[in-house]
Design brief:
Blueprint lengths: L1 H15 L5 E5 L1 H4 L8 E6 L7 E7 L2 E8 L1 H15 L3 H8 L1 E3 L4 H16 L6 H19 L4 H21 L11 H8 L1 H17 L3 H12 L26
Parallel strand pairs: 2-4
Antiparallel strand pairs: 1-2, 1-5, 3-4
Helix pairs in contact: 4-5, 6-7, 6-10, 7-9, 8-9, 9-10
């Protein structure tokens, strides 16, 4: 499979991105965790581009998702998009990616920059970040205590799954994750907590039992002061205003 992936990536490079300096082949297929619907994830780097872009298509039977950059746009996404978000999507693909068609001085420099950023970790949460997360989780848990329907319970569970995992990871100085990558990142940081997390949400989603998730949320928030609702205040920036026609 690995040889097939590399051959496919080389064909994409030569037929679609012939002028690119390097293509990084990454993602679940490369890690050996892919399924029949997994994409061929590529980070394509040209020497220079008018702008970065992302595109999806099929190539030789493979579904492809390509993130197309030059070194400057890649650096912008590393430091201004991914790092502030707490989820190192592009840095991880470059750091772990297989260099197509071959390793070069540029590809090694880009991999070194990506690896260094990942090692640095995400920005530390401020007190405002912590309280914002506490407030959001508290509201979701309140919705979970007395849902109006099973459909609303499932929707709340989905939002809480992302919010709780994010709070747990970021408060430990770890990179966060989203969607299907959440379980893998939780296992990497704390295998015991990961098992409890999965069991709690299984009880909720499979049997409609919220008690374990509520206890889990209480545990996650305990070190930061627990639930937060009454007295929470979030001021908007003063420049967030537009002129209006007050005459009418």
């Amino acid at each position: 499979m690995r040889d097939d992936l590399i051959a496919a990536a080389k064909a994409v490079h030569s037929e679609r991105y012939a002028d690119a300096e390097v293509v990084f082949l990454a993602g679940s297929l490369v890690r050996g965790e892919g399924t029949s619907t997994s994409d061929l994830d590529l980070v394509v780097v040209f020497r220079t581009l008018p702008q970065a872009y992302r595109e999806s298509y099929r190539f030789g039977g493979w579904p492809v998702e390509a993130f197309v950059h030059d070194p400057q746009t890649l650096a912008y996404f590393f430091h201004k998009v991914d790092r502030p978000s707490g989820i190192p999507s592009l840095p991880a693909m470059v750091s772990e990616g297989i260099e197509i068609p071959r390793s070069s001085a540029l590809s090694r420099a880009l991999k070194a920059a990506a690896t260094a950023l990942i090692a640095e970790g995400p920005p530390a949460w401020t007190r405002a970040d912590i309280d914002s997360s506490r407030y959001a989780i508290t509201g979701l848990v309140d919705d979970l205590r007395e849902p109006r329907s099973r459909a609303e319970q499932v929707a709340t569970a989905a939002a809480l799954h992302a919010a709780l995992s994010n709070h747990f990871l970021r408060r430990r100085g770890a990179w966060s994750a989203k969607g299907k990558t959440i379980p893998r990142q939780l296992r990497k940081i704390d295998a015991v907590f990961s098992e409890t997390f999965s069991a709690s949400f299984n009880a909720l989603l499979e049997r409609g039992e919220p008690a374990q998730v509520i206890t889990l949320a209480e545990y996650v928030l305990a070190e930061d002061g627990g639930w937060l609702m009454e007295g929470y205040r979030l001021p908007a920036p003063p420049e967030w205003r537009l002129p209006t026609d007050s005459a009418g």
